[in-house]
Amino acid sequence: MVAPTRAPLRTDRLRTVNAPKPVTVDLQESGLMTVGRPDGRTAGHVEAILESWRIDDEWWRQPIARAYLEVMLEGGKRLVLFQDLITGEWFSQMP
Amino acid sequence: MTMARHPTSTLAACVWIPLFPLRCEEARREGLAGFPSALLAPDTTRKLWQVSPLARHTGVKPGMTVSQAIGLCPTLRLLEPDPVHYDEQFAKLLSALTEVSPVVESAELGIAYVGTDGLEGIYGSAEKIVEAIKRTLECWNVGMSEASSFRLGWGVGKFTAWVAASRAKRSEAIVVPIGEEQKFLASQPIAVLPLDPDIHRRLRQLGIRTLGALAALPEEAIAAQFGSVGRRLWLLAAGRITERVVGRITPEPIVAALTFFTPIGERELLIHSLDQLIARALRHPRRIGWRVHALRLRADIEGGGSWLATILLKDPTADGARIAAPLKTRLEQSPPTGAVERLVLEFTAFAPGTSELQLFARDAQAAARAGQQRALQTAAREIRMRIKRSSLYHIIEVQPWSRLPERRYALIDYEP
Lengths: 95, 416
Description:
By secondary structure, chain A is an all-beta fold.
């Protein structure tokens, strides 16, 4: 419905705001959780999980199931992550 | 007996340009007319205001939310409204019409009435008068898209003229001969009446489909059912009311003057004084609703002699800076030859601003809005020139209720 953010710029077309950005999440056996960027760089280690919630929507069309986590990284930076429970991929997004 | 303040006319021509704002956009955006398009409402950007016929074919209607409209028509082109531009275009249209008749009344954007009493002495029959209006509209229409074609109606009173215009084909006119109003109106649908949806529904439930059917009922019965509104509707349907076209009187010249205790020769001081005079003249109550078209600046020079600059503004305006610009240029290029004792500014001719949007400095807020829009346009132009692409966006609500954050808002290219 909404044109993707990276679509060529055209007048009169809608562009999405706050589209999910792919990230990698690595959970080690020690319990250390690391968030990485798509280019392989590390965004940071997770210090604490502040909140978690789940969204299930559009089951009548193309089901959407997301597990959201609001985390605090080392240094105090807050980040909202979600895992697409259908594909298993991780994304970051503003709440 | 008192003299009427405004010139009026019983015989009326109605000029109607449907979807006027959308047509203005089509005129300035090449190729837009070939796509389904819609204007966002000026007050709230979540709803559609005007919808092109192509978009209507896909089921998009005014009042829909952006998400509903995009759902129905993914190729829909959404446009930011530019009320100042529409108002300016409409003011130009009114100004053009005053060349045919001095009695011109603006009803709403895209609808204007021209009083034609007495014009038969100049143009001839009603058909000839309508032809003269058509010629004027065709000249005005040059800058507009082909789709912006007008519809014209002529008859006794504004209502008959409006109904005739609403039934006319594109770029054509319907003339209702004098005395045949009732016959003409009888076959028209009740939708041409200024009805609220509730009365419209009730009339249809009563099986009343045409003005003739409504007029055939006793006036008192309609008044008993629908009150004073119903009585007025009955009178309109029966052709018993003749609403006159009420023109506006062009205001007398506005004069603002400044006498200096000590004659001044410095250009900066003169320019400062000029700004003050312009601001004072613009605040004059007689100027409300009018834009300045012609002005004169006079300077009395010490020891006799005078200096005069007469300016005719190409685009009439109520904006102080735009009025001042040509005068300042004149002061720079050929200043007074001596120290100035007295500076007099006169606004000598005016062009109507439209009454609907009241954007032409009816008050300070309106002037500020118009100025703000111009400043935004300039800034956006500069940004585009520097980075070679548009990088300004307007945030619109798409599905603000959505649980998915990326569905709530979207960006649309912003072109002030």
